[in-house]
Specification:
The protein has about 210 residues and is of the alpha/beta class. Helices cover about 40% and strands about 15% of the residues.
Length: about 210
Amino acid sequence: MSQIMVDVEADGPIPGDYSMVCFGAVVVEPSLERTFYGRLRPISEKWIPEALAVSGFSRDETLAFDDPKTVMEEFAAWIAANTKGRPFFISDNNGFDWQFINWYFHHFTGSNPFGHSSSNLGSLYKGLVNDMFKNFKHLRKTKHTHHPVDDARGNAEALLQMNPVVSKTRTCFTPEFAQNATLRAVLHVVGCRSQTSRFVKSERCA
């Protein structure tokens, strides 16, 4: 199983009515060298200037981007070549990012390699530190530039940094607690591998 950190820039709030401008993906591993970057031609005449401005591109520039079907097919091929087992989608704002990737995959290729679920990085961190008001963003190393590969890499760095957080808090989720495969996979990345049969506090993960 492999964890893929994804970041999306779009020219509006929903796919279909608006367009995904570009996206970046990074395999979550210490080197953070395996990346994907896609820039997609608009699929709609509708766009919100303020939303597009965040990406740093003009409307005229996006009209010269690549065919969305080709980009999504290339992304699917990249995922297949860079993952073992089922790939897991992780994002800082998966409510936004997931909807675009999922819609584009199904619309242009007929299926989504990530399946039907995604994970939220911020929620994972809040659970690890047992504080609903804590933010993970101080764990990033790469500057948040709104270039999606930079932003995905920074979030992947944060996820990798959560291993020391687990050790410091000495808190671990057991396999029984993490019933769904996505959560188990993310906990595996941050080094949480307790073999006990119930939720454990004050115990270093083995």
